[in-house]
Amino acid sequence: MTIKNICCIGAGYVGGPTMSVIAQKCPNIKVTVVDINEDRIAAWNHKDLSRLPVYEPGLDKVVEEARGRNLFFSTEVDKAINDADMIFISVNTPTKTYGKGKGMAADLKYIELCARQIARVAKQDKIVVEKSTLPVRTASAIKSILENTGNGVQFQILSNPEFLAEGTAVQDLLHPDRVLIGGDTTQEGQKAIQALVDIYANWIPNERILTTNVWSSELSKLTANAFLAQRVSSINAMSVICENTGADINEVSKAIGMDSRIGPKFLKASVGFGGSCFQKDILNLVYIAKTYGLDEVADYWEQVVLMNDYQKNRFSDNIVSTLYNTVSGKKITFFGWAFKKDTNDTRESAAIKVADNLLSEKANLSVYDPKVTEERIYADLDYLNSRSEEENRKLLKVQNNPYNAIKNSHAIAILTEWDEFKTYDWQKIYDNMHKPAFIFDGRGILDTKALSKIGFICYKIGSATTV
Ligand SMILES: NC(=O)c1ccc[n+]([C@@H]2O[C@H](COP(=O)([O-])OP(=O)(O)OC[C@H]3O[C@@H](n4cnc5c(N)ncnc54)[C@H](O)[C@@H]3O)[C@@H](O)[C@H]2O)c1
């Protein structure tokens, strides 16, 4: 079975970059990415590549090469579904905000809508690929919807979860640690798996393409995110102990990371993990465990999220207590709003919670982020409903220049690890702040020794000394 025409439903942070790379590497396959969000599709089609809706290093070049050749972005969902041999579903699967499982279970309404649309539109056999992260056994629900259309079309469902990390999406897609494909053990299922293997084999070595049954594939994605988030919460838990004992978290990370059983990656203490996936996927796992009556398992994983909340709250608490127990009317500048560097994605960013806490203490915030728009920052805050939209705009100002942002600040908080923050003229910044001038480095990226020589009072996560 040779695939000639791919459709991807969902032109977001996963669908856009993933399909761009597939199109770049497979010039003989026509790839159409569709979305109901017209603005998003218009942005993907924008002549000016700096206006693409997703910022990822190197993505503009990939899009430039393939767009208009064999990569297309469109709002004509039905047509793209009908034309395709293989359909990727890459829509959002947020945490449910209503009804049973509220605040925990994955909301599968967008997935189900896609399945129903495919069932309605498809006239020939199709392979449907789950690219979204889904609870284990979702494929059976999709299958049931697709098979009950009565129009005789045959569907094969594959699970092909995406492991890219935002900020390094293009490199992760070009050189993945592994590609995981789950499918049915039947002959037809194996043929569908092979069709997808053949696509990835255009640029990924065979030994990195792993095939499993559907349920293992679905569960592996949730497991991977749970393990990664757990590592962050584990090192963050140790960072508090460091601050209380005089140990230094960077020294501890280095010491344990040299143990080959532990390894050095993902051991950086911080103000907490963010991003659209970790929290949602762990909560989803917790919900699955609960539905099977596995309360101990559920409690074990839930603690990873609780620890993360604690880390964000204690960061803002520390700012308040260090600034003499009141930040009311004081100006605090945030460097960074994105949940990590090299992305414009702010979903579940630690900055949002820290800002909300400080605004509740009546601080005045000034925010500078190299890639996040003012509109996005206000939308993130307004979504919390903690105060009126007018008040958010009155108390928080977004700046597009770091040196303007810090003028007359009492403190600076580093919320995202953007490289450019390390290169600033910190003497100039110090000179333009109120004294004593405080820095709260929530990402451990600044040279606090050099900063304290200038005169700053520095707090670094996981380090006991306030120099
Ligand atoms: N963002 C990541 O780093 C990442 C990594 C791996 C996996 N995932 C998973 O991938 C999935 C997508 O994540 P994302 O970050 O790309 O989400 P996103 O919100 O950026 O994009 C999803 C897109 O799907 C569109 N959509 C929703 N329903 C639709 C429909 N019926 N028809 C057409 N378009 C529709 C939305 O308009 C939106 O543009 C999620 O399940 C997520 O958990 C995300």
TrEMBL record:
Pathway: Nucleotide-sugar biosynthesis; UDP-alpha-D-glucuronate biosynthesis; UDP-alpha-D-glucuronate from UDP-alpha-D-glucose: step 1/1
Source domain of life: Bacteria
Gene3D superfamilies: Cytochrome c1, transmembrane anchor, C-terminal, NAD(P)-binding Rossmann-like Domain
Domain UDP-glucose/GDP-mannose dehydrogenase C-terminal stretches: 333-448
EC number per UniProt: 1.1.1.22
Keyword Repressor in record: no
Segments passing through the bilayer: none
Record keywords, A-Z: NAD, Oxidoreductase
Catalytic activity: UDP-alpha-D-glucose + 2 NAD(+) + H2O = UDP-alpha-D-glucuronate + 2 NADH + 3 H(+)
Keyword DNA damage in annotation: no
Top EC group: oxidoreductase
Similarity comment: family membership: Belongs to the UDP-glucose/GDP-mannose dehydrogenase family.
The protein, known as: UDP-glucose 6-dehydrogenase
Source organism of this protein record: Flaviramulus multivorans
Organismal lineage: Bacteria, Pseudomonadati, Bacteroidota, Flavobacteriia, Flavobacteriales
